[in-house]
């Protein structure tokens, strides 16, 4: 074999030296002809990137293609095949030399780049190619050689190899891009490995069969050629099946529909239901814990050919709100359809109350009668939401001054534009208190509380309903000594917890009414000094303050041990239930945990169905009194408080 | 000791719809020199290609030097082969060709190769791409014999050689080989020039060995009978009409016994009997 390799190398020495010389000379040429805005190193890198992305693939196709067609030529049959070596080994030696020459050219380019690829300067596509360069180069060598051997023509073989390369690499690139930018839905590393193995085995197997058919002229030539073609096409299968699996899995991916405007004073989402979307099919639906669903937008039947090769998500924005009769208001805005306002329930279906063709942004607002505010081109409009089938009664509540329009187009400014109106609406809503201008008096209905001086904006305060009625939490004090004050019905205000707490900001109410707040939202990774003087990574839990429905306060509650025990739970930590001293938390979108008030006591945990949380840290959960609705990778699931889960 | 060097049984090979070999049986003993006689396209080169393990047979069996063709190329290391159209890498000199080949053959004798270069007047420094047809043939001879093979396959081995070289090869080299106990299978259109060295002649026709004769039989018991015939006669087996004038006709008679029997036929009374040349014998055997 060694002698054959020496022979093959000598045969292809001239074209190889020409190509290697061109690579080497391009470095000084790049330095010589660089523009002033480019440094010498950058100019050389640009030249080498050109080689890597365009020059080398052509060089590979030329070297390997020529070697392949030459191995199948009559000259090789007459000159080399009579040598006492198997014909397959002779062909393999030619392939090995083409591969070695390719490796040397790549090594030369890599060495000139200083054995470092400037990944940060590359686009995603070129960075992906750089990461998988060895595979792509090997693929081109194998296939240019084998197909040129099959066609006995370097040009035809090279072009066919390039075509097969595109067919194989494009789905891989698409899937990698999808995984990088969106979700890891398929085992891409496995598919890459399988493709590499099939490419190697397929090309070598095809070469063996072709060698038997062409060189040894064995019987059954047509069958061997056909089998070779199948083997050569084999590596294209995993990427295409992978892409098909990706599309199928993407079609099941479910996300919650998030509201357009995150206002701390926005009405709560309707309890017991989740407004969910399947971004890769376009379907939007309202679903409850029993799995009953009402469609808001149906699936798109045709999303276009480009979407076949790269599933593109289309997200909707929307909001739910309970109506006074227990039904649900749904507002949903999809980029390619008129926004809709619906009313109904997941069980009984949704009825269209209004299409909002001019709607750009809309959201529900509190008030004596809850309503919807809609931003249109010429201003802002408000309509109270009353159940029934009558048309909405829109009222213009503000023009669109030039500055507001500019900000609106830029995506900001609703609150600023409508601040007075929204405050007025909020102040008139039930369960909302008003803070006096000096911050010392809080009033709601006929009740009045005195506090040391409310901190923050003097906007109306949304109350929380506990067993004794609607309570208000007011952050008050001065800049050195401040606390959350509880204003309960019929009683004087009292200090609840030290620190700043405000409903909707860092104070929330679980579906069962338990009030909970935290000093910060997420866990923190910290470096801790050990007794040996070294540092190790540790976790620091948020510090929770909890007020149960019946008025019991739990302060400085931490989850350090649980967080250490359950690694990988990233994202928000939320209290979702309290019952007889037991607390239920969700850790990110990963775990449901049930624990006692002793942070070092026993606890139970349940893994939640896999959701999109790895890449997107927003919560995919909607808690209600009975359990959790979970938007997961494969649809919506429900998990009760003892961890029993079912797919809806 | 088993003296069988080569044995094929029922060898078959087709290229597409064309059946080239249709059950060929051939055997050769150690030291035997066999001429394969066949017309163009009769399958001589295909037979050699199968024996060299370059082409796979579709059916039948072959055993050469105790090995069966398996695609490994081992057989080619034991066989000397002079192809009809010798070819070498054009960028090499004659010496480089020999040095290159030396790496593949365990029993390569470089001294012998260089000696043959001298005897055949082949310039070792000449580049293959600049070689004449005759020099290529010389180089092929040297490459085929320098590794002392037990079996030589010669496919039109004197093609392109001038008279002197041909004579040197036929009367020198091949005799030397045969005396050294080498087995030689030769296909040559000009088989007559090989006459003195052949032990046996096999006629390859319709993809099989149609006839096999000892060379001594052809040399000693092939006759030309020239006779004036007044009327058509039916010819017995072993007698072949060669042509001739309208009345004076030539016949080839194979076998002394057949000749004696022919003489008894009144129609052949007075026939002039003379030995048939090997060249003419081969023509008759080929059916020309």
Structural class of chain A: alpha+beta
Give the helices and strands of chain B as they follow along the chain: EEEHEEHHHEHEEEHEEEHEH
Q: Tell me the number of strands of chain A.
A: 34
Helix content of chain A: 25-40%
- Major β-sheet of chain A, in short? 4 strands, antiparallel
Rg of chain A, rounded, reads 34 Å
Termini separation of chain B: 41 Å
**DSSP summary, beta strand count of chain B:** 13
Number of helices of chain B: 8
The two chains with the largest interface, and their residue counts, are:
A-B, 22 and 27 residues
Radius of gyration from the alpha-carbon trace of chain B, in angstroms: 21 Å
The main β sheet of chain B shows up as:
6 strands, mixed
Mean pLDDT of chain B: 85
Mean pLDDT of chain A: 84
What does this protein look like?
- The complex is a heterodimer of chains A (648) and B (288).
- By secondary structure, chain A is α+β, with helices and mostly antiparallel strands.
- Helix content of chain A is 37%, strand content 27%.
- Chain A has 15 helices and 34 strands.
- In chain A, the strands form nine sheets. A four-stranded antiparallel beta sheet of chain A has the order 1-2-3-4, with helices on one face.
- Chain A is elongated.
- Chain A starts with a helix and ends with a strand.
- The mean pLDDT of chain A is 84.
- Chain B has 288 residues and is of the alpha/beta class.
- Chain B is 28% helix and 30% strand.
- Chain B contains eight helices and 13 strands.
- Chain B has helices spanning 44-51, 94-102, 110-119, 133-145, 163-179, 215-220, 256-263, 278-286; strands at residues 4-15, 18-29, 33-38, 59-64, 79-82, 151-155, 183-187, 200-205, 208-214, 222-228, 239-244, 248-254, 272-275.
- In chain B, strands 5-6-7-3-8-9 form a six-stranded mixed beta sheet. Chain B has a four-stranded antiparallel beta sheet with strand order 11-12-10-13.
- In chain B, a hairpin with a 2-residue loop joins β1 and β2.
- The two termini of chain B are 41 Å apart.
- The model of chain B has no long low-confidence stretch (mean pLDDT 85).
- The chains are: A alpha+beta (648), B alpha/beta (288).
- Chain A binds chain B through residues 3, 7, 10-11, 75, 78-79, 81-89, 212, 215-219, and chain B through 14-15, 52, 54-56, 58, 71-78, 81, 83, 85, 87-89, 91, 100-101, 103-105.
């Amino acid at each position: 074999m060694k002698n054959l390799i020496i022979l093959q190398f000598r045969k292809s020495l001239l074209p190889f030296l020409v190509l290697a010389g061109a690579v080497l000379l391009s470095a000084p040429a790049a330095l010589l002809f660089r523009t002033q805005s480019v440094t010498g190193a950058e100019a050389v890198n640009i030249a080498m990137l050109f080689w890597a992305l365009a020059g080398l693939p052509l060089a590979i196709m030329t070297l390997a293609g020529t070697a392949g067609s030459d191995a199948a030529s009559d000259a090789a049959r007459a000159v080399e095949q009579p040598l006492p070596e198997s014909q397959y080994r002779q062909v393999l030696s030619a392939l090995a030399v083409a591969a070695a020459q390719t490796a040397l050219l790549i090594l030369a380019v890599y060495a000139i780049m200083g054995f470092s690829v400037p990944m940060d300067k590359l686009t995603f596509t070129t960075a992906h190619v750089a990461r998988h360069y060895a595979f792509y180069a090997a693929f081109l060598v194998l296939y240019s050689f084998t197909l040129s051997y099959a066609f006995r023509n370097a040009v035809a073989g090279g072009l066919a190899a390039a075509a097969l390369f595109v067919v194989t690499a494009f789905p891989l690139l698409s899937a990698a891009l999808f995984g990088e930018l969106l979700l890891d839905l398929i085992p891409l590393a496995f598919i890459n490995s399988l493709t590499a193995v099939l490419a190697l085995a397929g090309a070598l197997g095809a070469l063996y069969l072709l060698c038997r058919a062409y060189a040894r002229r064995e019987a059954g030539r047509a069958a061997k050629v056909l089998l070779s073609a199948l083997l050569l096409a084999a590596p294209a299968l995993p990427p295409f099946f992978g892409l098909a699996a990706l599309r199928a899995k993407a079609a099941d991916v479910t996300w919650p529909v998030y509201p357009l405007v995150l206002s701390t004073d926005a009405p709560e989402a309707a309890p017991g239901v989740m407004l969910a979307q399947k971004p890769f099919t376009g379907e939007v639906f309202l679903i409850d814990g029993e799995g009953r669903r009402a469609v808001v937008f149906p699936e798109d039947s045709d999303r276009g050919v480009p979407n076949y090769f790269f599933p593109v998500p289309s997200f909707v924005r929307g909001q739910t709100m309970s109506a006074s009769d227990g039904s649900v208001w749904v507002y949903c805005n999809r980029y390619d359809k008129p926004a809709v306002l619906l009313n109904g329930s997941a069980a009984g279906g949704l009825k269209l109350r209004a299409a909002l063709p001019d709607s750009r942004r809309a959201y529900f607002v509190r008030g004596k009668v809850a309503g919807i505010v809609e931003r249109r081109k010429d201003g802002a409009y408000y309509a109270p939401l009353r159940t029934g089938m009558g048309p909405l009664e829109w009222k213009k509540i503000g023009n669109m001054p030039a500055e507001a329009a500019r900000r609106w187009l830029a995506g900001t400014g609703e609150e600023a534009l409508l601040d007075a109106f929204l405050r007025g609406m909020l102040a008139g809503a039930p369960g909302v208190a008003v803070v006096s201008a000096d911050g010392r008096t809080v009033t709601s209905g006929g009740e009045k509380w005195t506090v040391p001086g409310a901190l923050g904006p003097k906007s109306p305060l949304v109350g929380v309903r506990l067993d004794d009625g609607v309570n208000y939490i007011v952050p008050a004090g001065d800049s050195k000594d401040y606390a959350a004050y509880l204003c309960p019905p019929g009683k004087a205000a009292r200090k609840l917890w030290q620190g700043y707490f405000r409903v909707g900001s860092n104070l929330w109410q679980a579906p069962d009414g338990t009030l909970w707040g935290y000093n910060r939202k997420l866990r923190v990774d910290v470096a801790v000094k050990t007794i040996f003087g070294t540092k190790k990574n540790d976790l620091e839990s948020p510090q929770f303050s909890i007020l149960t429905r019946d008025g019991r306060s739990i302060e400085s509650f931490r989850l350090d041990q649980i967080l250490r025990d359950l690694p990988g739970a990233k994202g928000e930590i939320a209290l979702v239930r309290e019952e007889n001293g037991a607390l239920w938390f969700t850790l990110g979108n990963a775990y449901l945990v049930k624990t006692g008030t002793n942070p070092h006591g026993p606890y139970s945990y349940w893994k939640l169905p896999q959701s999109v949380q790895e890449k997107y840290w927003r919560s995919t959960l909607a808690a209600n009194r009975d359990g959790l609705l979970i938007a997961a990778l494969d649809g919506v699931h429900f998990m009760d408080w003892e961890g029993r889960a079912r797919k809806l | 000791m088993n003296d069988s060097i080569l044995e094929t049984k029922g060898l078959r090979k087709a290229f597409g719809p064309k059946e080239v070999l249709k059950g060929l049986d051939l055997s050769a003993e150690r030291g035997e020199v066999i001429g394969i006689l066949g017309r163009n396209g009769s399958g001589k080169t295909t037979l050699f290609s199968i024996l060299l393990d370059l082409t796979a047979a579709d059916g039948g069996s072959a055993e050469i030097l105790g090995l069966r063709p398996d695609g490994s190329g081992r057989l080619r290391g034991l066989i000397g082969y002079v192809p009809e159209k010798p070819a070498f890498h054009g960028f090499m000199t004659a010496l480089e060709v020999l040095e290159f080949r030396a790496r593949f053959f365990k029993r390569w004798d470089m001294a012998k190769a260089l000696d043959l270069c001298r005897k055949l007047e082949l310039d070792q420094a000449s580049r293959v791409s600049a070689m004449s047809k005759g020099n290529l043939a010389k180089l092929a001879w040297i490459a085929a014999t320098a590794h002392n093979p037990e079996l030589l396959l010669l496919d039109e081995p004197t093609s392109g050689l001038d008279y002197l070289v041909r004579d040197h090869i036929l009367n020198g080299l091949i005799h030397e080989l045969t005396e050294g106990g080498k087995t030689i299978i030769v296909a040559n259109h000009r088989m007559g020039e090989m006459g003195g060295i052949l032990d046996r002649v096999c006629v390859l026709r319709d993809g099989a060995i149609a006839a096999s004769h000892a060379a001594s039989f052809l040399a000693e018991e092939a006759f030309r009978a020239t006779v004036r015939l007044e009327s058509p006669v039916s010819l017995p087996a072993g007698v072949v009409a060669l042509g001739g004038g309208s009345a004076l006709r030539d016949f080839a008679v194979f076998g002394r016994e057949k000749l004696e029997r022919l003489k008894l036929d009144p129609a052949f009374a007075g026939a002039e009997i003379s030995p048939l040349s090997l060249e003419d014998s081969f023509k008759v055997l080929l059916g020309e």
